[in-house]
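Support request, priority: normal
Reporter: lab tech (M.K.)
Component: structure prediction queue

Hi team, I submitted a job for Claudin from Callaeas wilsoni yesterday, and the status page still shows it as pending. I've pasted the exact input below so you can check whether something in the sequence is tripping the parser. The sequence length should be 219 residues. Please let me know if I need to resubmit or if it's stuck on your end.
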Amino acid sequence: MASASLQFFAFILALFGAFGDIAATLLPNWKVNADVGSNIITAITQMQGLWMDCTWYSTGMFSCTLKYSILSLPVYIQAARTTMVLSCILSAFGICITTVGMKCTKLGGDTDSKNHACFAGGVCFILAGIFGLVPTCWYTREIISNFLDQTIPESSKHEPGGAVYTGFISAGFLLIAGVIFCSSCFKRQQGAWIYPPKQHHFPSTEQESNAGYNLKDYV
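Reply from support: The job had stalled in the queue. We restarted it manually and it finished. Here are the results:
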């Protein structure tokens, strides 16, 4: 019962991680630049994401521009696009597989098959967390290095946006869920190896008859 509850908790974490991963991939605020200028009326907030750049004006207007050209983008944005999409795909696969392998469901067949399914789903979650953590770290490093560069003007410097923090939290949820699923299956298998089922040996009928024959010889 405790293992089933732990798997259910890990599944909830994986759901939050998967939804957060998708949201972080689609959000346009990976880096934000607030330019107030000389007048608060002309203040604008520029946001740059993996797929589009958006500008929000203090007057309430909001406009976005899609990034159609892939080759013109920096390397870290291209890598972030690829790894975040892979992270979303792996997390979706992990949710489908662990749904079959969880103990609280009636799918997946016998116990060994469900354990293997849970382990495979946990591996998918761990890989999804790694693929989601690498681009967020790389993207944050580029933002910080540009912010600390003295040769770059202040108007061109940015700060990490909400999508970066969402990516970090989602990657953490996926990693924790994957470790829980893998460790729960491993502990069960290890317990089976350490405490194998006892085999009861019953004496054969032939041995009993021989023993009875030998006792009669001494009478």
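Confidence is low (pLDDT under 50) at residues 188-195. The first strand starts at residue 31 and ends at 35. Let us know if anything else looks off. Ticket resolved.
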